Amino acid sequence: MKANSPNIGNTPSERAEDFSPPRRSRVKWLKLLIIGVLVGGTIWLSAPWLRARFTQIHIDDARIAANIVTVSSEVAGRVTALPVVVGDSVNAGDMLATIDRESSEPQLSAVLSKLDATDAQLAEIRTRKMMLEKQLAARREAAAASIAAANANHEAALAAFRNAQSRHDRVTKLAGQNVSSQQNLEDARATLDAAVQQERAAAAAIESARADLAIVEADAAQMDVLDSQVASVLAGRTGTEAERSLKEIDLANRTISAAFPGIVDATFVDVGEYVTPGTRLVMYHAPDEVWIDANVKETSFGSIQMGSKARITVDAFPGREFAGEVTAMGGAATSQLALLPSPNPSGNFTKVTQRLPLRISINPDGVQLRPGMMVEVYVDVAD
């Protein structure tokens, strides 16, 4: 009976028999399988990156922007109230600051008093004009009546004159024929002379009445004087009205209110400080009206179009994504908009990829995005 013992004394040739061709084949296929799995996994894991590499443009030079409004003083004076601090929410019409009104209110009252005095003066002139119109109308009617009466008297005097002239002629003819006495002739002559004088008096009365009417018409020129006074007072009142408007605007500008709902970003003065027109008081923005200002490389600019969709991540809110789209594309590189130009007097030139501005809308989706927050944008250029 032989005992089972390990083949310690096997020769190398005997040990090599353990690695037969079938065993080596299995090891080879196992290695190929592992390599295939690794390659497949690499491709599968890198597929999103590859897809994004060719269908999206990644922009990291981007930040939240908004219409940040700086409210400045339009008048001079001391700040009497500043009820807001940084971070406060304000509604349209809420007070942001007030400037003292001690000098403006009396000035406005003085202008209003001047207007009242002007109105009283204007009313007095118009009353005088109305009374003068009535007086002139009455005098004109009286003068016209006098002229009419004088004309009637003149017509009566003319009739009496003609009658006396006719009687005188008859009596003179009869006296020449010795039919009428000398006394009758003298009476006829006296009657004719009286009729002549009455006709002349009646004619003079007509001229007098017409003179009275001319006087009335001359007095009517006072109406033109009053009209000129009214025009002068109205011109002065127009100037006073303009002065009142300026004083009211000045007084209104001493209360600074929010023009729209927003969030206070900064305050620049304290209560008691003296400000002049143009001094900055408060800065605030509308939180619901935000967008993204980004700078994209010129090599990628041609692939972007108006309306291109964008996926946005905000550094302040990791793990969240926001949707947006391209709403504006810059017309010049940012280097052309710099305050300090970059000339090249030495002649040494290093080509640098330029960047062009983009504006991208963003849907806050209930998140309060603050201007200046850094974001990363992925613009879809698959189309």
UniProtKB/TrEMBL annotation:
Q: Which residues form the Multidrug resistance protein MdtA-like barrel-sandwich hybrid domain?
A: 67-280
Subcellular location, record wording: Membrane
Q: Where is the CusB-like beta-barrel domain?
A: 289-378
* Pfam families, alphabetized: Beta-barrel_RND_2, BSH_RND
Q: Where is the composition biased (Polar residues)?
A: 1-13
UniProt-listed SUPFAM superfamilies: HlyD-like secretion proteins (SSF111369)
Q: What cellular component GO annotations does this protein have?
A: membrane
Name of the protein in question: Secretion protein HlyD
- Renumbered to this chain, region (Disordered) spans 1-20
Q: How does the record say this protein sits in the membrane?
A: Single-pass membrane protein
Q: Name the keywords, alphabetized.
A: Membrane, Transmembrane, Transmembrane helix
Q: Which InterPro entries match?
A: Beta-barrel_RND_2, MdtA-like_BSH, MFP
Q: Which residues are listed as membrane-spanning?
A: 29-50
The main location class comes to: membrane
